[in-house]
Structure formats: structure tokens, C-alpha cells
Amino acid sequence: MTRIQANLVLLLAAAIWGGGFVAQSTAMKAIGPFWFIGLRFAVATIVILPFVWMENRRAEKPLTRGNWLSFLCTGIALFGGAATQQLGLLTTSVTNSSFITGLYVVFVPLIAVVFLRRQPHWIIWPAALTALSGIYLLSGGSLSRLTSGDFLTVVCAVFWAAQITLAGVSVRETGRPLGISAAQFAVTAVLALIVAALVEPISFAAIGAALGEILYVGIFSSGLAFALQVIGQRYTSAPQAAIILSSEALFGASLGALLLGETMGPLGYAGCALMFSAMLAVELVPELKRRRSVTA
User: Fold this and answer.
1) Which of 55, 64, 124, 219 qualifies as a cystine partner to 178, CB 3.0-4.6 A?
2) pTM (predicted TM-score)
């Protein structure tokens, strides 16, 4: 595969993820958020199981109890992210959700500083300030105009960052990225279905009305896009991959405008631009510095 082909594969993955925000929003016209999360990740678990079976056949050592505990913690973090994002979409727009969720790339290194005691790259601090400025502008210059959904989505970005950190540790320990994905999908599905059964009504008619969105997010966003990301990143550089995958937020905003008629003012667009620049800076600046030191 050429680098151009790999970049196109990554662009397709970002577009699929961007479309997922629209599907998550429209599904809740028919079904409760926790039923949607539970069914979505149940589908995702089933989709990825054949690939997990093939991965297990090549595994060099069995999983330990500590590995399974790590998988469980990763799944709980994923559930927290999925739940706060889905609940946030009840009172925020797809555009806001897609850009605010993308702030996990800023939170990941901050979590590494607090919990893993890793020295951060200097770019983290200006990027964090830029991201906060972007949220302020997204509110129209008044934090009181931010909805509860916007604040929930900030919490969601923290959960995503925790999930990425935990998954990264688990991958390094086990070498089983697909197994980790299946485990976290299954944990999220079980937790969401338990909550849904306790607090939300359900009917076959509701499931049928939201079936398209459930299958799209379960099969494509969680299954196909993950595979495309893994494939594409093998044949392109990390900086290019970071730029292309970050376009998920742009696809989410564009599709929200095209399919749902969402709009925002000039300050909102400026805020999105600031948040997007913060995401790119956190991804690109450390990698470019590393590449220069290697070639020097």
C-alpha cells in the first residue's frame, strides 16, 4: 500500500467516526441513550470476535488475572466516555460534541503527568490554554451559554483520555489490541444494558426505529474504522496520521450542518479552530521534534 492510499484509508476512518456523531444524535429520537450504548457495543463485540480469535491463535503467552483486571478498568473508562458523550448529545449539538470530544488528545498527556509521573512536553501547557480558550469562544464568549451537554462532553473527553491511557498500558503488557477492544466493548455493553434495564423503557419498535444507527455505529464506527486505522497507520507517518484522524471533528461538524441543519456564529467557528489547532499541536510538535533528533 502506498502512503497516499494509506492516508485515504485513514481519511475514510475519520469520516466514519464523524458520521457516528450524527447517528448517535438521531438515534435518541427513538431510543434511550443507555439502550443505544448497550446495543451498539454488543454489536461491536460480535463484529470483532472473529479477529480476536485469530489474534489469540498467534499469542505467545496466556492472559493473567492482572491483564483481565486491566481490561475491566479500560472497559469501565470506555463506558464512562460513551455514557457522558451520549447523554451530552441530548442537550448539545453534533458540532460541539465532535470538537469537545477531540480534546482527549490534550487530556491524555495531562493524565500521564498526574498518574504516570511522566514529564510532559512543553507544548501541553499552551495547548491546554488554547483548548480552554476554544471552549470559551464556542460558548459565544459567555460560559453561562454552555449547556449541560457541553460540560458532560468535557467529562467525556477526560474518560476517553483515561481509556486511551489504560488501553496503551494493556497493549504494551499483552500485545493484544483486538482482545482489549473486544473486552472493553463487552464491559461497556453489559454496564450500559444493566443501567438501561433499570432506568429506561424499551420496546422492539424503539429498537427497530434506531436499528440503522445502532448497526452503523456498532459495525462501522467501532469495527471497520478501527481496522482501517490500524491498517493505514502501518504505511504512513505518525504526523500525517495525526492530522488526518483529527479531521474526525471536522467531518462531525460538516455532517451535522449538512444532515441536521446545525449552525453557529463566527465566535463558535473561531473556538472550533482553536480547539482543532490545540489537538494538532499536541500530536504533531513532539513527533516532529523526535524525528528531527533522529535524523540529526
Assistant:
1) 55
2) 0.84
